Amino acid sequence: MLKRLPITFWATVFVTVVCVALVSLDFWRSWNARGVLLEETERSSTNLARAMSQHADDTIKAADTSLADLEERIEMDGLHEGQLARLHQVMLGQVRALPQLDGLYAYDEAGRWMVNSQPTLDRKANNADREYFRFHRENRDKGPHIGLPVISRSSGKWIIPVSRRIDKPDGAFGGVVLATIDIDYFRRFYASFDIGDNGAVALLSNRGVMLVRRPFRAEGIGASIVDTPLYQAYSRSGTTGTGMFRSTQDGQVRLNSYRPLQNYPLFVTAALSKEEALAHWRRDTWLHSLGVVALAALLALFGQRLIGQMRRRLEAERELRQARDALASLNATLEKMALQDGLTGLANRRQLDVSLGNEFSRATRQGASLALALIDVDHFKLFNDRYGHSAGDDCLRAISRAIRQQTPKRAGDLAARYGGEELAVLLPNTDIAGAWAVAERMRQAVAALQLPHADSAQGIVTISAGVAALVPQRGVDAATTLIEAADKALYAAKSAGRNRVAPDLGLAPVLTP
Ligand SMILES: Nc1nc2c(ncn2[C@@H]2O[C@H](COP(=O)(O)OP(=O)(O)OP(=O)(O)O)[C@@H](O)[C@H]2O)c(=O)[nH]1
């Protein structure tokens, strides 16, 4: 079934498969490259988040260590005047040593400013209203507390408060020590990252409050992000993770990596813009795809032309085959016509001569008898004269038909038009008696046609025949011998009154009719 499909079909299938494979392979390659690029982006953002969380942890840890030291000193020595001057010096030293520190402060149990790292101390100021102060007053927990970002009352900068509770010797609330971390310190650090034009990094509290963010927006500090998909993913997992989220702040889709701080209830997130990460890939893919599609189109066009040519060539070959077949059949017809008489449909004189030559040779070789009957229409001239030449032709055709029907069907038997109104029947392997019998049957068949002939003695068309037979002797007899003998017999038949068969007894004296 498949074999019968034309070559042009398979060529079309081939070109189509090549074009589709070309485009599919390029698509697959591009899609793979995209996946690899996103994986790399994810790795970068994860590494960035790790570095940020470590940095934030270290930054707060250093401040908290100072606080723990201050807390211990105050709990040991109390907050009396002599102690305050020493504490002031210690605080100044710590703030100078730690660039992230905006200031260090100590408040008594009523929130009054007792000592800080500022050059002057406003004794009338009170921080009892601050969130961290209320937290420590109400919680006996001795660990550090990270507060919400606020603008410092003393320096006017955005700060993150880190505080610890001071206990009196009896365990009652004795005040708070506070370290304020300059948000600008984080901002400067985050500004040093290469996160592209649309990347974002942030430090956030575990309760979903923004502490610092790049791109920096003052109104973003302290804002809640609990409704964002990023925070929901983080609070669900509670640990390190990644995800592709659309920012609720600027609508950008980013690949986010989030990671909690090891020691504090905060987490960081590093987000790289998907758009930026894929920008180069997109440009590259566009150019590449354009090239591949153009190549596939060229291939398809070229293939289509080639297949068209193939089709035309096949068509030409088919036409050529048809012409050759027509020529062959024409040749066969011509060959037949060359051996056939046009009027009677019997073999023509040429074929008779060839067959007679062949059969004569065979009979000579085999020592077989070869017979020939020469037949002539009686008074045919008168027939033509009375009925016309065309009726004469019809008459000849009818006689030829009758003679063909009576001609034996053995190989070599041949009825032919000898010339004019004269016919000949070649009968191999036949002696004179057999030939006479055949000619007699023919004569009777013609008479049976009852073709009217007013100028004939019988009133119908009749024929006369002369038959001759011989067993040819090599070097003695020739084919013409047989013709001449038959012709002589025909003449005898005519002379004897026509409408009869006369045998030639010279060549075959054995005849007993
Ligand atoms: N219509 C027609 N006539 C033919 C054809 N071939 C030969 N003839 C005619 O046949 C006639 C033969 O005449 P003749 O040879 O005189 O002999 P005949 O009239 O048959 O008389 P006998 O043979 O003596 O009986 C001629 O008039 C030819 O013109 C042919 O193909 N068609």
Structure, described:
The protein folds into two domains: 36-299, PAS domain (Beta-Lactamase, 2-Layer Sandwich), CATH 3.30.450; 349-503, Alpha-Beta Plaits. Mean pLDDT is 91; it is low at 509-513. Strand 7 (200-205) and strand 8 form a beta hairpin. Helix content is 50%, strand content 20%. The longest helix has 71 residues, at 7-77. It is an alpha+beta fold. The chain has helices at 7-77, 81-97, 131-138, 183-191, 229-237, 274-339, 349-366, 380-387, 389-406, 432-449, 479-495, and strands at residues 101-108, 113-116, 145-146, 150-151, 158-167, 173-182, 200-205, 210-214, 241-246, 253-260, 266-273, 370-377, 414-419, 422-428, 463-470, 501-503. It contains eleven helices and 16 strands. The structure holds guanosine-5'-triphosphate. The site of guanosine-5'-triphosphate has 17 residues, from strand 12, helix 8 and helix 9. Guanosine-5'-triphosphate binds next to strand 12, helix 8 and helix 9.
Features:
transmembrane helix, Diguanylate_Cyclase, disordered C terminus, diguanylate cyclase activity, Beta-Lactamase, six-stranded antiparallel sheet, about 525 residues, binds guanosine-5'-triphosphate, alpha+beta, Alpha-Beta Plaits, Sensor-like_sf, transmembrane, five-stranded antiparallel sheet
